[in-house]
Amino acid sequence: MKLLLTTISLLTCFSAHAENVRLIATPSEPVSQQSTGQHKVIYNTFSVPEEKAQERIRELMDTGLYRAVEIDMVTSSITVSATLADSAPKYYPPFSDPAYGYQTYLMSSSEHMTGMGATEAQSYLIPYRPMTVGVIDSEFEDIMDIPFTNGISMVEGEDDVWEPACAGRHGVMVYSLIASSRNNGVGMAGMTDVDIVPVRAMTCGSGYSSHSANGIYYLSGAEVNGVPGLEEPVSVINMSLGGEHPCSVHTQSAINYATSKGITVVVSAGNEAIDASRVSPANCEGVISVGALAEGDSRMELSYFSNFGDTVDVSAMGSDVFALYNDDTAYLVSGTSFSAPLTSGVVTMARQLLPEESPDMIKWLVKRTATPFPDGHDCLSVGCGSGITNALALTQQADRISQSGYGTIAPLLKNPRFCDSDKAYALNNEALPQICGIYELSLNVNLREGEKGVVYHRVSGEITRVSETRSGKSRIDKPEEDGDYLFKVCDSEENCSPAMPINIDTDIPEICQ
């Protein structure tokens, strides 16, 4: 395999057409249940001179037919430079994929600073149990190392999902990181076993932002302007695109619909070296926004092009990332477009272990298990998220949760530490009835310094605060039979995790019967 070394900064940006702009109008009731079982999304588009855009927007809004009318912005990607070279692998692989030796991000962080622990994390997963990941992008090509299923073009008038004439191959490089078949003697190794659903939202790297939003709807199983949605929605959506403008109503509505269906949406933070809050879809609610890091002298550093700020959730390797260009050639590529799919692959691992978990909870776990930035790191001042995406830590945590849940409330006497002599003492001192009424809370999520676990009891929608713990364990009264119990991890009264369910052990110890 030839190695094409390049620095490709995917400088994605949205801009209006020079003469006419396209408006997208979202009806007041854009989504409704259909007899087919799919939801139906309807919108209208209008082409107007740029100088008349705001006037036309006001006119359309005044009709009362639309809840939003906005300019449909255009996205594009630019290849900065490319250099053809041959190079030896940085390490020698356990797998047969020829390019595996270049993929240092698959290693553990103790083996290489770029390592995310993805190879070791596979030991917690069921091998060759593919899930589906939707990749919304362009410049796709059917290559033999990538397992595909379905796929569609959302670009009006262009039905082919493949674009063999486009030179950039951006979409190919993105999904090669997620899904290249592992240990098959071909190409490289993907992050995990998944099938890719490619959604073409641009033409050779340029297209309307509404095409991307429509792709989200499609991957979530919704019908969009007469185009049937995917029969079996994907588990994760990757969007390596963006531009400097607010999150549009159409895009946010699509993301909301996807997350309501349990789909996690991962997006690139952008490559303008600005605050990511200025860039969409990184500034949309409900997504995991990923910044880019580069290999430094002794640690990972913020890539010079990466966006930053409070909008970024985590960061991952995004400079000189090995990715396939086609069946015979590979690139070293740079951009948040590539830190995002690495994180999408990690998210997919967690989703395999926790298939019913909410996107909010998956996002919290991704951030929770990220490797913190060391003292003095630039990211601690400018903001690159909670840390570096850590595949091994996330899968270990997800595995514990899948096996034992987030926490348990059980009779104190069932604690193995409560030995037989303690039970005998309770019997002899007639304290048994009181002790049998004591239960112990044990959390399966480690609390950090300054955090507390707050326990709630929920009955018929009413939530009552029961107790809190700073150690992960707490003694509480016998739980009520009605309702359920939840807990949140909080570092302040205003900043808490999503609510996590607590298992109730109703098996009464024999000594208490």
Instruction: Please tally the helical runs, counting DSSP H or I stretches of 4 or more residues.
Output: 11
Number of domains: 3
CATH class of the largest domain: Alpha Beta
Give the strand content: 25-35%
How many E-type strands? 30
Mean pLDDT over the residues: 86
User: What is the CATH T-level topology of the largest domain?
Assistant: Rossmann fold
Strand-pairing-aware structural class: alpha/beta
CATH architecture of the largest domain: 3-Layer(aba) Sandwich
Describe this structure in words.
Helix content is 21%, strand content 29%. With 513 residues, the protein is of the alpha/beta class. It has three domains: 2-12 and 76-402, Peptidase S8/S53 domain (Rossmann fold); 17-72, no CATH class; 405-512, Immunoglobulin-like, CATH 2.60.40. Strands 10, 11, 12, 15, 17, 19, 20 and 21 form an eight-stranded mixed beta sheet that branches. The chain has a seven-stranded mixed beta sheet with strand order 27-26-29-30-24-25-28. It has a four-stranded mixed beta sheet with strand order 9-1-23-22. β19 (287-295) and β20 (300-302) form a beta hairpin. α7 packs across α9. The longest helix has 18 residues, at 336-353. It is globular and about 90 Å long. Residues 1-18 and 78-86 have low confidence and may be disordered.
What topology emerges from the helices and strands here?
Elements: E1 2-9, E2 13-15, E3 20-27, E4 31-33, E5 39-41, E6 44-49, H1 53-62, E7 66-71, E8 74-76, E9 83-85, H2 118-121, E10 131-137, E11 152-153, H3 170-179, E12 194-200, E13 206-208, H4 209-219, E14 223-224, E15 236-239, E16 243-244, H5 249-260, E17 264-268, E18 279-280, E19 287-295, E20 300-302, E21 314-317, E22 321-324, E23 329-334, H6 336-353, H7 359-369, H8 379-382, H9 391-404, E24 407-411, H10 420-428, H11 432-436, E25 438-443, E26 452-459, E27 462-469, E28 473-477, E29 484-490, E30 500-504
Parallel strand pairs: 1-23, 5-14, 10-12, 10-15, 11-12, 15-17, 17-19, 19-21, 24-30
Antiparallel strand pairs: 1-9, 2-8, 3-6, 3-7, 4-5, 8-13, 16-18, 19-20, 22-23, 24-25, 25-28, 26-27, 26-29, 29-30
Helix pairs in contact: 3-6, 4-5, 6-9, 7-9
